[in-house]
Specification:
Length: 290
Amino acid sequence: MQESFVIAIDLDGTLLSSEHVISTTNLSILRQVIDLGHHVMIATGRPLRTAVEYHRQLALTTPLITLNGAAVWQPDGQTLLTEHVIESEVVDRIIQLAMSFHGFPLLAEVKEKCYQIPFQPTQEWTQPMIDFFEKAILDEPLGQKPIPWHVGESLPYATSSLLISVPREQHADFFTAVASLHLDHVYCRAWHEPHNVIEIMARGVSKATALREVCERNGWQHKRMIAFGDEMNDVDMLKTADFGIAMKNANPSLLPFADAITKSNDEHGVGTYLMKHVIMKNSNPIQRRA
């Protein structure tokens, strides 16, 4: 009998095409993989509201990892399993600091809710950047409109993810200033260029930590893992997996952490790899690098 794997898959730039859809090829192959008894999971930086539609399209019965591991949801997409937060007073301090660097807050994720500052992109925001932000972050497929939030207002609850916009040339100085606040439990990560977005979340939280939590909860810790990703928020996941696979379109900085490279997200790279190495053969998916 073929060994069953835990298969963790990022969404944007990985499973989803440039049009933000799961191709029929990927969908068909993933359903075959699931039918073979493998445990397919989504691990994304998206919030629940813009990720759950893909989880349902695949008919997954595994937990859904969102916000880069800060929130993990039951398979029903409604019940929160685990959440890692930063307190509202810390959020206030970070926002004040960002504004001193000509930045501004964008939104905060609190459980299934989104608190949004009125979105007024600066001239640094190109139309493709705005389109991605509105589709991947602000979309409302569940009919849940963001809760209006205004600069100077404190959030009523702790948040699992805070997004702020700071001019890219100010990022290094901003990170230094955050470090000077000695907020040891806070982690800042810049989105890839050209986005000038910085994500703030609890330190020590990642897709990899969430995957380990899910595997331990479900008794899968001894199963081998295959992970697919394309960006630097996938580094820990690819390093944790037994077989870390980068997309051909991946950030070049991710490639040293990958064991293999598959086709791009617009070439059904996830499905192509799984068909060749999981469905069509019973041996190891790849020979892991020494």
